[in-house]
Design brief:
heterodimer, A: 296 residues, mainly alpha, 12 helices, 73% helix, B: 618 residues, 3-stranded antiparallel β-sheet, 23 helices, 6 strands
């Protein structure tokens, strides 16, 4: 049974992630008054890329890409998707936080060996941005963990299904709002796509990738879209008792997020940090203090 | 085999090495390695034994004792293995330098004295070994001369202040308890008032806090660590500052005892929470100061302070889980920080003393083994799963969250993110990016250096995947302190509030990597091209000029740098200048003219007479 779950979870995440990728392009296009590519375009791109020749810069260049995609796949095993949570008993939310590191770290190592200044700038921006959103994110996660007195995400989901969604209960609605404020930064979507910024640093971390490398990096991005949204659904929208509803929730949250953020222009990196460390952090801090006072 | 035999080998070996160096350098090298490895073997053999030995009676009627128990065994094995690997690393590092005999003598002496500290059963022998350690470390820190002398001076002044604190504590304990044997003191202290216990802990904490570089007593460390010879930096950061944390464990849980210690104060203002708060500050601010550093060893040095913060948080929070996390993190930090200093040492050795992060780059092409070692060390200190740093940090986070201290946990997490940023910079600026023209001919590190680095890397990964091996010993330490026993298995810890299973994580990551690798392999094979090929699109560009290293996190620096000054160091410097000014002022009255001195004496007598006439005190 567990073996089947281990196989199914990443597949679900992959399919939904690719779908979200196509969806965001479509919605963005419609907002721009364009027709946009078909929903299946990312899949077509990947198949195409995978058959092209590519260039490598060395072993760490290869290893980094592999590691980053593998890390993102593993996160899914720890994240409950409906009732599917094959490995969540091995360390809880803290492990998820840490394995989420593999994605950026792998890309960073790989890009580092490429020795392209644009890549290095992209990595520098990516890590700064990560630090930027981790500050509120940690406050949010701590508020949730302190409130439910557990580090297990399965128990957090279970507690919400017994009572009600965290998003609808008093102190936790505050960190919930903070999470929504930083969600685009976690997903690397507008207005936080400064890591790629094609017009400034020619796609930053992606510039040296071609062919199968670009395909793997795109799949990694798809996984991270799924993980970032699914974490919100699990923590604040009560997860779900079956994978179908869970996926619907994920898609709804994603669409809302894209609709709101599609109209914003891109931040500069210092503006992004200033934004992330001001309102979302203040709201998240207020949430944590409220939870702390109420729980004590 | 008894305990004093171990110390005889350690100290005797140190002096014998010095004498052998006068005969033949090769013989001395072999002997130094043999001695340090023999110590590891003997300590490993003594595992699980509880020994006590009175070796000298005549010290003012106080018996001097040696004692081996779980805690001291754990520290002894850490000390001796880091010591042995640094000695092996030194073989090639120090060969071309002068005063090598002296160097080996001091290295072995520091190790021997640290073994003495952890094996002492009474406070007098503890203090004697403590002083031997402080002074021999001073001689090694200033080994390089030049700026190292100033760094050594700063270290020894702070160290002496700390020793005075410890001495006051010891004297006070002697007057109250009439004995300095640790077990007997515990019995006497059971009846003491809590005010007295706080006094004792504070006096000792000054000494231990300075040695372990806890904020605000940390200022000696960045200079000392960056100026010392690299293998000794590894010892210094890996184990010497851990003697401070050993001292904390000793005074808190062995001498004062868990029940008394955790009962000081109440609520959020408990004494241990105040220490825990200092630990949280120590974990955050130095880590972000480290982010701003450009000297590789200085960066590592600031991180040493930061990681000490985690250890302090772990051991002062005072639950069985947090103690396990703190002590395990202490072991892990010894391993990965020693490894990181050794990798910088190897780079420094091959590039002839360059450790400026802005001018290096691309060395992965020339020193692949060193890069892998640095990568393992960096992953360990960040706490990425599959390294031992992950398990210990997990334990510390978890206990902080479950004990309802989200703000301390926040500090711990933020410290980790700062660590990630600065260690990516560390790896990128030294090993990744473009290889500058002047380092085109750099060779790979010599065998003895690679050997030490590989062994450290293996320890980090093995204890990361199978953390049960050290955790079993650490659990034993916790139970001797009186904490509840943890359910330790080979792959982690089982508990109702959250199990950790590193083997599952390991299997998942390896499995995923294999799958992705198979997909990767299935695609068309990639052609390997030169580094500047893609960027220049085939055109000839001047090499060496497209390396993004200086100010790697520039937008972030501009935001946080103004807030990250070392105010404590500035305060101490001002205090030192003020003291010097006072001294100069006082010196002016010594004119050298006898007439003035006669006047001083008469004035003083007149003052005494006036006082007597007016208030008639005598």
């Amino acid at each position: 049974m567990r073996i089947i779950e281990i196989v199914i979870s990443p597949i679900i995440a992959f399919v939904i992630g690719m779908f979200l990728l196509g969806l965001s392009r479509k919605i963005m296009a419609r907002i721009h008054w364009r027709y946009g590519p078909p929903l299946i375009q990312p899949v077509i791109d990947i198949v195409k890329l995978f058959n092209q020749t590519s260039m490598s810069h060395g072993n760490i260049f290869n290893l980094g890409v592999i590691l980053s995609l593998a890390g993102s796949m593993v996160v899914v095993l720890f994240l409950p998707i409906g009732k599917l949570h094959p490995l969540s008993g091995s360390g809880g939310l803290l492990v998820i936080l840490y394995i989420m590191l593999f994605g950026p770290l792998g890309i960073a190592l790989s890009g580092g060996e490429a020795a392209n200044p644009n890549t290095s700038i992209g990595i520098s921006r990516k890590l700064i941005l990560t630090l930027g959103y981790e500050l509120p994110l940690i406050l949010i996660l701590l508020a949730v963990m302190t409130y439910y007195r557990t580090i297990s995400i399965v128990e957090i989901v279970g507690a919400q299904q017994e009572a009600r969604w965290s998003m609808l209960s008093f102190p936790l609605v505050v960190p919930g709002i903070a999470y929504l404020l930083i969600l685009p930064a976690i997903l690397g979507e507008r207005p936080f796509e400064l890591v790629k910024a094609p017009q400034e640093i020619s796609s930053g971390t992606m510039v040296e990738y071609g062919g199968k490398y670009l395909a793997l990096a795109t799949i990694e991005h798809a996984f991270s879209l799924f993980v970032g949204t699914a974490l919100f659904v699990n923590l604040f929208l009560g997860g779900s008792s079956n994978p179908g509803f869970f996926i619907i929730k994920v898609i709804v949250v994603f669409i809302v997020e894209v609709l709101i953020n599609a109209v914003f222009p891109r931040f500069r990196v210092d503006q992004a940090i200033k934004y992330l460390w001001r309102w979302p952090t203040l709201v998240a801090l207020a949430g944590l203090i409220l939870v702390f006072i109420i729980e004590r | 085999m008894s305990v004093e035999f171990l110390l005889i080998i350690a100290f005797g070996g140190a002096f014998l090495t010095y004498l052998l160096g006068k005969i033949s350098h090769r013989l001395r090298d072999v002997f130094a390695v043999l001695i340090s490895c023999a110590l590891v073997a003997i300590i490993a053999y003594l595992y699980g034994k509880d020994l006590e030995k009175t070796f000298y009676l005549g010290f003012f009627g106080l018996p001097l004792q040696l004692r081996l128990h779980m805690l001291s065994w754990f520290f002894a094995i850490t000390v001796s293995s880091v010591g042995a690997l640094s000695i092996i690393f030194s073989l090639s590092y120090i060969r071309q330098r002068e005063r090598t005999d002296f160097y080996y003598l001091m290295m072995l002496l520091v190790n021997a004295s640290m073994l003495g500290i952890v094996l002492s059963g009474d406070l007098v022998s503890f203090y004697i070994f403590w002083e031997i350690m402080s002074w021999s470390a001073f001689l090694l820190i200033s080994y390089n001369r030049g700026p190292a002398l100033a760094a050594g001076m700063k270290y020894i002044i702070m160290s002496v202040v700390g020793s005075i604190g410890i001495l006051i504590g010891i004297l006070s304990l002697y007057t109250t308890c009439g004995t300095l044997n640790m077990t007997e003191i515990t019995v006497h202290l059971a009846a003491a008032s809590s005010r007295y216990i706080i006094f004792i802990i504070i006096t000792f904490s000054i000494g231990f806090g300075i040695k372990s570089a806890m904020v605000p007593l940390h200022t000696w460390l960045p200079d000392a660590h960056s100026q010392a010879p690299s293998p000794f930096s590894a010892v210094l950061s890996g184990i010497l500052i851990k003697m401070g944390t050993y001292g904390f464990l000793l005074i808190m849980y062995v001498i004062v005892g868990i029940r008394l210690f955790l009962g000081l104060g109440s609520g959020l203002f408990s004494f241990n929470y105040i220490l825990c708060f200092l630990g949280a500050v120590t974990a955050v601010i130095p880590t972000f100061i480290a982010l701003l550093q450009n000297d590789a060893k200085r960066l590592l040095a600031w991180h040493s302070i930061g990681q000490i913060g985690y250890i302090i948080m772990g051991i002062t929070l005072g639950t069985s889980l947090s103690i396990a996390g703190g002590v395990f993190h202490l072991f892990n930090h010894a391993m990965f920080k020693a490894l990181l200093f050794l990798t910088v040492g190897a780079v420094e050795y091959r590039t002839r003393g360059v450790r400026d992060l802005n001018s290096l780059g691309g060395l992965i092409k020339r020193m692949p083994v060193t890069f892998m070692a640095a990568l393992v060390g960096a992953l360990g200190i960040i706490g990425v799963p599959l390294t031992n740093g992950f398990v210990s940090k997990w334990l510390i986070y978890k206990s902080l969250i479950l004990e309802q201290h989200p703000f301390f946990a926040f500090a711990a997490f933020i410290g980790t993110w700062g660590t990630l940023l600065s260690f990516y910079k560390f790896l990128h600026n030294m090993f990744l990016g473009q290889l500058p023209e002047k380092y085109k001919d750099v060779e790979k590190a010599p065998f003895s250096m690679q050997f030490s680095m590989i062994i450290f890397s293996i320890i980090i990964v093995i204890t990361g995947i199978l953390p049960g091996i050290p955790l079993k010993v650490i659990n034993g330490i916790g139970t001797t302190f009186g904490f509840g026993s943890l359910n330790v298995t080979i792959w982690g810890i089982i508990s109702e509030t959250g199990t950790i299973n590193t083997v599952n994580i390991f299997a998942a990551i390896i499995g995923a990597c294999v799958i992705v690798w198979l997909i990767f392999r299935a695609g068309p094979k990639a052609t390997k091209i030169a580094q500047d090929n893609n960027y220049a699109a085939g055109a000839a560009i001047p090499s060496d000029r497209y390396n993004y290293t200086v100010d790697f996190y520039n937008p972030l620096y501009r935001m946080i740098a103004p807030y990250l000054r070392d105010f404590v160091d500035e305060f101490y410097t001002r205090l030192a200048n003020w003291t010097r000014g006072l001294g100069n002022g006082v010196r002016r009255i010594y004119t050298g003219d006898v007439g003035y001195y006669v006047i001083y004496i008469i004035l003083f007598l007149a003052l005494l007479i006036i006082v007597q006439v007016k208030w008639s005190i005598w």
